[in-house]
Amino acid sequence: MSGPTIEELEALKSALTAEIESAADGAALEAVRVSALGKKGSVSGLMKSLGGMDPEMRKEMGPRLNSLKNDIAALIEGKTAALADAELDTRLAKERVDVTLPVTPEAQGSIHPVSQVIEEMTAIFADMGFSIAEGPDIEDDFHNFTALNFPPAHPARDMHDTFFLTQDGQVQASGAGAGNEPPKVLRTHTSPVQIRHMMTHKPPIRIIVPGRTFRCDSDQTHTPMFHQIEGLVIDTETHMGHLKGCLVEFIKAYFEVDDLNYRFRPHYFPFTEPSAEMDIGYSVEDGNISIGTGEKFMEILGCGMVHPNVLKNCGLDPDTYQGFAFGLGVDRMAMLKYGIPDLRPFFEADMRWLKHYGFRPLDLPTLVGGIAR
Ligand code: DAH
Questions:
Q1: What is the pLDDT of residue 317?
Q2: How do residues 7-32 score in pLDDT, each as one tens digit?
Q3: Which of the ends of the chain has fewer CB neighbours closer than 10 A, N or C?
Q4: Which of 144, 158, 303 to mutate to test the pocket of ligand 1 (most atoms within 8 A of CB)?
């Protein structure tokens, strides 16, 4: 088999050289490289053809093709560096800083309404003698459901649209029980921290639990991640009157209203008996909502006396101990107090929104200095 003539090699070299020189950017240069030195490129093709040549011819063509390949590779390398230099020059020219210009103010940070509201609630409950407890975002079936008296396979479990974790830690919206163990969940409420606390602390217990919670739900007033505050009081003589007094005082302090129109409505939660929802009065005038008085009612929280089964599940004797619990949505409480119409921007990290609804740093709420800003 005869190889290419010297003229043909020269022609190929000058064609490729011209293409390399005229490549306007990295992509164009890469296209030339592939067309010459890539697996199916013109130069690579010639290199491959060496194998089919008779030994004499191969001896002659080998060095020639090798130097063609090396020349082209060197040209491409040179051009790559030249393009990078040119790109840097353009950027440097464009990004030149005029140090004589006045300083632009830094974007100012602010406290997110959720953090603010948690601080406010904490200040109120701390004044009543509560301390803060916390628990994990990833929970097991026992703490999130079973110990809270949700019977297995009971429809009460469907009250929450749960995110389950698969064996390899992925989140999915339906149960993925591997083997006999029920799957882990993203906690659907802060109530499992009641269990964790009762199993590790002796009464009297007086805690609040602020934290993230997760449900498979998304619209103007629901986001897959949201915040709750849980409350738990366990003692030997706690009764429904304490529950009422505690929550009414809390809501009055939080919304800063002396005159509160409220009602407790019977409800169902597996972990309390009796259970109730607390509604508070409100009125709307010219599109502005005013909370406290008014003839309309809105639901604000869930509560009840801790179910004897829950106490037993935590190793407490229900004949000795009893108490109350409550849970409320922090985000919703922030929306109501500060007139924020949509929940979704809470979690979008938009500086304009934060600037509008955020709070001054280091200006923490205290009962003395004032809860609301
Ligand atoms: N865990 C309930 C929920 O997320 C809220 C709740 C209701 C908590 C009543 C409580 C309670 O502690 O007593 O819907």
A1: 98
A2: 888 999 999 999 999 999 888 998 99
A3: N
A4: 303
Q: How high is the pLDDT of residue 370?
A: 67
φ, ψ at 181 (rounded to 5°): -75, 130
Ligand 1 binding pocket, CB closer than 6 Å:
189, 191, 230, 269, 272, 302-304, 325-327
Burial-class residue 362 by CB neighbours within 10 Å (0-12, 13-18, 19+). Answer: exposed
Q: Give the number of the atom of ligand 1 that is nearest the alpha carbon of residue 272.
A: 13
Q: What tens digit of pLDDT does each residue of 145-181 get?
A: 999 999 887 776 766 788 988 877 777 776 555 556 7
End-to-end CA distance of the chain: 91
* pLDDT for the residue 159: 67
Beta strand pairing call for 262-267 and 205-214: unpaired
Please say whether the structural domain 113-137+187-357 has been given the CATH code 3.30.450.20: no
* Position in ligand 1 atom list of the atom nearest CA 231: 12
pTM: 0.71
Domain chopping of the chain, boundaries: 6-94, 113-137+187-357
Q: In this structure, are residues 111 and 361 in contact, taking their beta carbons and an 8 Å threshold?
A: yes
Q: Which atom of ligand 1 is nearest to the CA of 194?
A: 12
φ and ψ of 290, to 5 deg: -120, 130
**C-alpha of residue 302 to centroid of ligand 1, in Å:** 5
